[in-house]
Amino acid sequence: MNKPDILSSIKQLIENYAGESLAQRFDPANPRVLLHEPTFGSQEVWEAVDSLLSTQVTMGAKVKRFENEFAEHFKFPNASMVNSGSSANLLAVSALSNPARDLRLQPGDEVIVPALSWSTTIWPLIQHGLVPVIVDIDPVTFNVEPEQIERAVSDKTKGIMLVHVYGNPCKMDDVMEIVNRRSILLIEDCCEALGASYGDKSVGSFGVVGTFSFYFSHHITTLEGGMCVTEDDELAELMRVLRAHGWVRETNHPESYAKEYPGFHPRFLFVNTGYNLRATELQGGFGYVQLPKLRTFVETRTDNAAYWRRELGELDQFFDYQMETPGGRHSWFGFPMAVKEQAPFKVGDLCDFLNARGVETRPIVAGNIATQPAMRYYEHRVVGDLAHTNNVMRNGFTFGNHQDVDGPAREYITGVIKEFAAERGLL
Fold it and tell me: Is residue 130 within 8 Å of 111, Cβ to Cβ?
């Protein structure tokens, strides 16, 4: 067989094996609802295999194609892919702290962050000598409240690292009023919020930089992967420099740097510091195939959330639920809820019951990041008692809400929760 025939055979075998999805469908006879299932199928696998067999695996045309499609889909002027959502946060903070910028974050500057967040929302700030100022969340939306931001502002405040928790957009009108009035740099951590919007704008388009994650369990996946978006062309160019060693090879205009510095080889011209945060062609291929599926994935998650909110209504006296921000469109990374303090059971009791019946659960984000042991080593400031965040950490949980949680699966989850309540005489 010649190479084209071999490739065609490989592609057909992948299609036969994987089909549309590699996920395991819900089986009522052996009920299991995992926190996540693979979103990908034969098309994505073929893109990866094609990259391997072509031997073009480092960042190239497929990554660029995905960047362009992502930017066009969400109406972002610039999109730069990196190897993870955590790297996206690192790159954003690095670029905004870089001496190449006139208006930049500098060591000792304070950056306001929500207590309910992930570790790599905070670590890049600390790694660049910035001081996280940690504030509480709203118990209804699970997002930081604009009032808490205003309360935390000091004469050292230079930035806000905003998190759209579990896909729920923050109150962006109010946030932007503070940002504009005080001339504060805004970074949007949208790693859990792909597909979410506020008003007629996607999350990530309000701040100077927005970051996204394509981790295995997220709305779409490139297995690992992330994206930085910005309207600032100069900032976008700087991020392309920083993500690849500080060289100019993958910038949009490498020839301009070559003309400015003619004494250096243009492929090995370093104009700044940097990292190796580049995505691979396997990841770029995955993303390009995944992106058109996002709308359907979010619709499924949204329908599921509406179903659970309705069907669990008779247990409202025992639970608090994350509620969609008015004016926003939630993308429902999960279905976060919290057991009320006065409930006659503990969150651990319910989660043990769910897990024993095949419904996987987990805490919400990383809980109160201010209480994590690592924070004791680094300067930070806490505003208030963080009571709402502590409540979510003590009593909150979520279960799987993804594209493969269909009617029978979501009904099963509901039935298990009601069974738990009935066994305790609560129904």
Answer: yes
> How far is the CA of 369 from the CAs of 118, 271, 300, 380, in angstroms?
7, 36, 30, 11
Q: What is the pLDDT of residues 328-377, one digit of tens each?
A: 999 999 999 999 999 999 999 999 999 999 999 999 999 999 999 999 99
The string of pLDDT tens digits covering residues 312-341 is: 999 999 999 999 999 999 999 999 999 999
Residues 319 and 312: beta-carbon distance below 8 Å: yes
Domain contains 12: no
Query: How far apart are the C-alpha atoms of 107 and 195, rounded to whole Å?
Result: 34
183 within 8 A of 176, measured Cβ to Cβ: no
Residue pair 31/358 in contact (Cβ under 8 Å)? The answer is: yes
Residues with Cβ within 8 Å of 323's Cβ and at least 6 positions away in sequence, in order, are 140, 141
- For residue 79, give the CATH number of its domain: 3.40.640.10
Closest CA to 90 of 177, 213, 1, 5: 213
Range of the domain at 306: 295-423
> Is 27 in a helix, a strand, or coil?
coil
Q: Are residues 274 and 304 in the same domain?
A: no
Q: Which residues are catalytic?
A: 218
Statement to judge: residues 239 and 383 lie in one domain: no
d(CA 146, CA 176): 9
Residues 301 and 412 placed together within one structural domain of the fold = yes
Q: Are residues 233 and 317 in the same domain?
A: no
Are the beta carbons of 312 and 379 closer than 8 angstroms?
A: no
What is the C-alpha to C-alpha distance for residues 276 and 262, in angstroms, rounded to an integer? 25
**Sequence-ordered list of residues with C-beta below 8 angstroms from that of 221, at least 6 positions apart, any chain:** 38, 39, 40, 214, 215, 286, 290
pLDDT of amino acid 3: 87
Rounded CA-CA distance 7/50 in Å is 8
